[in-house]
Automatic annotation (TrEMBL):
It comes from Enterococcus malodoratus ATCC 43197. This is ABC transporter permease. GO terms for molecular function: transmembrane transporter activity. Keywords: Cell membrane, Membrane, Transmembrane, Transmembrane helix. It is found in: Cell membrane.
Length: 375
């Protein structure tokens, strides 16, 4: 019974967080003199106005699913991978570099090689904080935050000074990858009215299933979850917590790197110098937390975030400033962050209902007995 109640609470918390985020966002619009109903109507009308918009929702959701899965794996092992942005950036740069270096090679060779290279680049970037955490006890939060900056400037240096001039279009911008290296397929593009939708979303769906199977049906997944719950008990049971930490960080970085690959070979088709850490890393963390780390939750959360980002642009046509339009996502993240308060409230409601039911039973039982005595 307790397990069932806990599952219900785990399901309700994300939904309540989303509803509270929308309500508070609407209240902000109302206070500042804008009609929240008109604003939200414009948001959803813009997000679902045609097949192109729906395709763009899938485009935005693909990279977020990968970074959210990366965060979920690391979080299951008991630590926060805040370096998803840098690891995704590595996957983006390396995949574009590989694809542009083979302009005449068949697609069946280029695309798998670029995907594998980008994934390995993300895993390698995550290996550094993983090893430092496992063998030296350093804080993975601090190391991964610093690594984001290191990898950002390293990527910009590679584009400006290392890549061959033959694959550079302008200063700090690469050429567009040819059709032999992109994740886009004509039939998929035509299906969604010419949008940028690509096989990256399909790949993300595949990895949702693979990560679920890894974490729920394999020995390695069990070890990762065990180390996350109690590393000392895991060591006593014969598991190597250091090895598990490093492996989980490698998997996390690999998934983030794949998010960068989808961003590069699917969404943009090239790489250009970034002024700051790319948003899919931090948004992926929020998606994972909102989805409670589960595959279905991550999928729904990624789609929601993509809808909010795309629809937020449409709110501006209704006269709502972009600052207010973009406030809904942070508010949802805020309520996700204080999900403990939501859980406590749900628990109290559940307990109060049980108390009321018990008191009703106690009141009804004596009356039945008295009736029996009168007879």
């Amino acid at each position: 019974m307790n397990d069932r109640s806990e599952r219900i609470r785990n399901t309700l918390v994300p939904f309540i967080s989303v509803i509270l985020g929308f309500l508070l966002g609407g209240l902000l619009m109302l206070v500042t003199g804008y009609n929240p109903i008109v604003g939200y109507q414009a948001m959803f009308r813009s997000a679902f106005q045609n097949s192109i918009s729906i395709g763009e929702i899938l485009v935005g959701a693909g990279p977020l699913i990968f970074t959210a899965l990366g965060f979920s794996v690391a979080n299951s092992a008991g630590f926060f991978n805040v370096g998803l942005s840098g690891q995704a950036l590595c996957g983006w740069v390396v995949s574009i570099w590989v694809a542009l270096s083979m302009p005449t090679t068949p697609k069946v060779i280029v695309v798998p090689l670029a995907i594998i290279a980008g994934a390995l680049a993300g895993a390698l970037a995550a290996a550094i904080p993983g090893l430092l955490r496992a063998y030296f006890g350093t804080s993975e939060v601090i190391v991964t935050i610093m690594m984001n900056y290191v990898l950002l400037y390293m990527a910009n240096h590679i584009v400006n000074n290392v890549m061959s001039p033959e694959i550079i279009s302008n200063k700090g911008v690469t050429k567009i990858v040819g059709a032999n290296g992109l994740l886009r397929e004509p039939w998929l593009t035509n299906l969604f009215g010419g949008s940028r939708v690509n096989m990256g979303f399909v790949l993300a769906l595949v990895f949702l299933g693979l990560v679920w199977f890894l974490m729920k049906r394999t020995t390695l997944g069990f070890e990762i979850r065990s180390v996350g719950i109690n590393p000392f008990a895991s060591e006593y049971a014969g598991m190597s917590s250091k090895r598990t930490i490093v492996i989980s960080m490698l998997i996390s970085g690999l998934l983030a790197g794949l998010g960068g690959v989808v961003q590069g070979l699917g969404t943009f088709g090239n790489y250009f110098v970034q002024g700051s850490s790319i948003s899919i890393g931090f948004d992926g963390m929020a998606v994972s937390l909102l989805g409670n780390g589960g595959s279905v939750g991550i999928l729904l959360s990624a789609l929601l975030f993509s809808v909010l980002k795309l629809g937020g642009q449409g709110m501006q046509f209704a006269g709502v400033p972009s600052e207010l339009a973009n406030s809904v996502i942070p508010l949802i993240i805020f309520f996700v962050g204080i999900n403990y308060v939501v859980r406590v409230a749900l628990t109290k409601i559940s307990v109060n209902k049980k108390i009321v039911k018990k008191s009703e039973k106690l009141e009804i039982t004596p009356l039945k007995q008295e009736g029996a005595d009168l007879e």
